[in-house]
Amino acid sequence: MLSDLAQNLRFLCAEKPSVAMVCREIGINHQQFSKYLTDHSKPSAHNLRRIAQYFDVTERALLQSHTEFADIHRYRKAHPDQSGQDPLSGVFPGDIGKLRPFLGAYQIFFHAPVSGSDIMVNTVFLDERDGIVYSRLIEALKTHRVGQRRWTRCDGKVSYQNGRIFVVDNERRNESALSMHILTPPPRQKKTYLFGTMCFLASLPRRIPYASKVVWKRFDTYRSVRELFKTCGVYSSDSLKLDPVVRNYLTKGTDDNWL
C-alpha cells in the first residue's frame, strides 16, 4: 500500500504530460523523484518544499490523506476563478481531517450586544460538501407577537488552522459585515464544548463592531431542527435554563467546571 504522499504525487503528476517534464521543471533528479512515486524514499524537507511550490500546494497538503487531498484538489479545479483569484482559497478547510470530528449541530452562547448582561443563544450546523466545511447559523428571536419569531440566517465557511477552528460567515439579506468565531478544540475526551471569541457588526441599536466570549455546545441527539430552534433567544445570565459551564465561561472567562 503506497503512502499518502506517494499517492498524492502520482495524482498530481497524472495531470502533467510526463514525469520527466515535472522533474526538469522542478530541477530534481528523475531517478530520485521516481523513488518518491514508488514510496521507496521520502523527499527531504528542502525537496518537499520545492515540489509543493511547483504544484502550487502546501507541504502539509502533500502529506494529508489521499482521499481528502483528491477531493479538495478536484473542488479547486472545478472552481478555477476561486483558486486563481481568491487569496484565501487555500485557507478553507485547512486540516480537514482534524475538522471532520466537529461536524454537526451546536448551540452558540454569547453576550447580547444590546444588553451585555443577557446571553443570546443561536443554533449552527457544520457540514461538509466537496471537501469544504460550511456553516449555517440560525438566529430565532421572539417578537412582541406571541408565538412569532424573527429569523436570521448566516452562511459561512470553516477552517482548522494551527490548533484552532475559524468560522467566517455573513448574513446574505442585509448589508452586514463578516462575523468570525475563533474556537479552541477541547481535549479528545471532552467534545461537548468549544470555547473562544466572536466578533461581528451589531445591528441594534447602532451598527458598531462588537466582540464577546462565545461557547459552542454540541447537540449530539435531537428529534428535529425545530427542537433546536426553540432553544434560541435571549436569556438572563442567571436563568436556570443556561448550562452552568456556559454561564461560568461567559461571566468569569474561565472553563473550570468543564475541566
TrEMBL record:
Superkingdom field: Bacteria
Positions of the HTH cro/C1-type domain: 24-62
Ranges in a coiled coil: none
InterPro entries: Cro/C1-type_HTH, Lambda_DNA-bd_dom_sf
PROSITE patterns noted in UniProt: HTH_CROC1
Gene3D superfamilies: lambda repressor-like DNA-binding domains
Protein name (Swiss-Prot/TrEMBL): Helix-turn-helix transcriptional regulator
Organism this protein belongs to: Roseovarius rhodophyticola
